Amino acid sequence: NKNRTIIYQWFNLINGKLYVGSAWRGSNRLLTYWNPSVLKRNLQIYNSLNKYGHNNLVLAILEDLGPTGSVTKEFMLNREQLYLDILYSKEAEYFNYLNISPTAGSTLGFKHTTE
User: Which pTM value belongs to this model?
Assistant: First the structure.
């Protein structure tokens, strides 16, 4: 995935929760999921990796969009949004989300808890 633009998915084998993401530089982004300072961030995907361990989550490349720079970031986010729309359809259970927002590349739609 070095210097490749990708759409990827994490799937938790224990609880069935999904996370969909995109990366302008695939290998750089994916390596951050093993970086201790990144894993300290309070986001659901990192909390899931910390709680269940990397061995209980499966990483899948949903789409390789080509070499970095061969597509626009807008195109990349549109492709990510396509997968979010498919995987997180209205028929899907809300508890299966690890994404904080239903909108690719944005926190738009994120609902804060009272905590």
Answer: 0.81
CA distance 85 to 82: 5
Sheet containing strand 18-23, edge to edge, reads 18-23, 4-12, 57-67
Show the 3-state SS of 47-87: HHHHHHCHHHEEEEEEEEEEECCCCCHHHHHHHHHHHHHHH
Query: What is the model's pLDDT at position 109?
Result: 45
Decide: 48 and 17 in contact? Cβ < 8 Å: yes
CB-based contacts of 54, cutoff 8 Å, min separation 6: 33, 34
Task: Say how far residue 40 (Cα) sits from the centre of its chain.
Answer: 16
Stretch 39-57: mean pLDDT, rounded? 96
Given pLDDT bands bounded at 50, 70 and 90, which one contains residue 7? very high
